[in-house]
Amino acid sequence: MNSISLSQETYTQRLWRHFHADKFALNGLRIVILLFIVAALAPFLANSHALIRVADGHVSFPIFLSLEPIEWRFLLYVPLAGLVYFFRHRFIAHPGIFILAVIGFIAAVEIFLALTHPINDPTNDRDRPASFKLLPPIPYSPIESTPDQFSPPTWKHLCGTDSTGRDIAARMLHGARTSLSIGFVAQSIALTIGIALGGLAGYYRSWLDIGICRFIEVMDCFPPLLFILVAISLFESQNNMFYIMAVIGLTSWTGVARLVRGEFLRLSSLPFTLAAKAIGANDFRIIVRHLLPNALGPILVAGTFGVASAILIESSLSFLGFGMQAPTPSWGDILSDARRYIDFAWWLAFFPGLAILITIMSYNFVGEGLRDAVDPRLKMK
Amino acid sequence: MTHYIIRRFLLLVPTLFGITLLTFLLIRLSPTNAALIKGGGGEGGGKAMTAEQREQIVKFYGLDKPPLVAYGNWVGKAMRGDLGNSFADHRPVADKILERLPLTISITGSALILSYFLAIPLGVIAAIKRGQVVDRTISFVVFVLYSIPSFAAALLLILFVAGGDYLNLLPMYGINSINASEMSLFPWLWDRILHMILPVVCLTYASLASISRYARVSMLEALSQDFVRTARAKGLRERVVILRHALRNALIPLITIFALELPVLIGGAIIIESIFTLPGMGQLMFQSLDSWDEPVIMGITVLAAVVTLLSYLVADILYVIVDPRISYE
After folding, report:
1. Planar angle of CA B184, B187, B190, nearest 5 degrees
2. Is A226 an 8 Å CB contact of chain B?
3. With an 8 Å Cβ cutoff, are B300 and A220 in contact?
4. Per-domain residue ranges of chain A
5. Are the C-beta atoms of residues A186 and A252 closer than 8 Å to each other?
6. Contacts of A313 in chain B (CB under 8 A)
7. I want to staple A48 with a disulfide (CB 3.0 to 4.6 A). Which of A64, A124, A210, A217 is the partner?
8. What confidence tens digit (pLDDT) does each residue in B79-93 have?
9. Whole-number Cα distances in Å, A319 to A165, A332, A335, A340, A349
10. Sheet strand arrangement including A52-55
11. Considering the domain A168-374 in this protein, what is its CATH number?
């Protein structure tokens, strides 16, 4: 960007400095990270199993025994965080590839886990006698029915209960995982397709560009939701999280593709690309090492806004009854329950609505901050 | 310019073919079809059909033909202006769509116009008071509004102001009261307006947010231009500078965005229509998806695609008309 700059500041450092100065963006990022931590730790925050239980002289850890493979994902993120920290200097040297690698890793884990089906273990340790037990802060599981139906928010049920007596706070915590991972993975899929097609169109131009542009136009012309709803019905028999992710991803890549195409068109006529060509770099190297890193800023901005809209799409799908299947907790699902008991159960609409609002707002603040950091011109001094 | 418009019109043709083909194939590739659903969804809907009956239905609707042949037939008829008959009630698709369209357009249209009327002053004020408390308040409120999911807002609005255990000021659902057919014109109109308030509010606030953000950015851009400085330098009043010089130029991109928002008129209210049980396009779309009513799904897709493509075209043409500096020659 700054062709003449006396400081030693790298692009990434400058980006971070701008981002860091933006209070809203920084707090948005903090909230997003917090949401991810809460989502990863959801089984320890809301579970009917005790963390530690001492009975008849035996010490047991029921919560760990009850965990399913899908719950262990948080363990995979610990080494990931370690690796990021360990290689942070390389991160600054090659931020583009690094960011893509991290996004790819998380997406792969989430896709793998989305393919597994959760099982429900109905036992609870609230009523089981024990000489000592340590229950999680919300001692209810998300799919567990209690006798208190339609309880408004009380100290016992912080966010109330629904028609079958399920604790809304527990469902919201576990629903956070659904929303966050669907948002993240769907947008990763969209980014992958968008970068690939947009990059091809922008770099090779001519007939490939025309064809891809027409295809983008076709995709953009579907009424919002109709295409998604038709596509989802393709997978009617095997409805699980992965198909929702795939469908949202496959239908929301056009914005990214347009953006990448524009960036590549611009960048590929700049001197550094010509120089790379002149010293004999092949197309792949030019695209991956020269064009992509330079286009990464706008791509990240679009990706961040995209996650917000993917979360919104997921919750509207669940709200309409086309999203996640019944027992799996998701924010949209609680809201669709609220619709049935609309005349009195305000807590069924308020809390998940608030959760979606906070999540989307944080993502949007991060996106906004990133955009200003990538292109400080837009900030108007 | 004429050349340009003609070329753009010709380019619409392949795109339309692409859209309809893709939709058609998606419908045909799906494991379910209208015959299965009529027979009780295949999961024992209580009145499962015999295999022969199902065969008959499949033959009757031409579901046994290869997808491409069936698509060819559909295109042939559609070119002659015949979108076919609905599988569900055998009425012409065009009629079914046309009777739904006015309601949807009246709701989305009033929301769109209302949001422009509110958003432009908001954006302009924010731009003039850039960086001050007013600007920051407007920007933040607009940002929050932008992030509230419309279905959650609709639910809470219904709960608290329309017929829940709290206030009961507005009707909860529907587009008319039950006794609407007996009303004279003005009570009927008042009744209709009362029914439209909540859906329109829910649709307005979200687009209000994005449009006022555009308006702010566009106004800021205009205010930083040289001609604004010149206007100020020659001693014009601030009012004149802002309204005559800056605002006029700031409106150019907003007019184009208005054209790009036109597709929303048709497909923009699916969820809101479903919450307030309004018999509009959204409901038709749901019904057609539920019964896998292929001709209706295709009809809606064609309509939406044509409107979208035309609005892109209109946006590009408007650009030239409102701003003589731009030309496509």
Report:
1. 140
2. yes
3. no
4. 168-374
5. yes
6. none
7. A124
8. 887 888 888 778 888
9. 19, 4, 6, 11, 11
10. A58-60, A52-55, A132-134
11. 1.10.3720.10
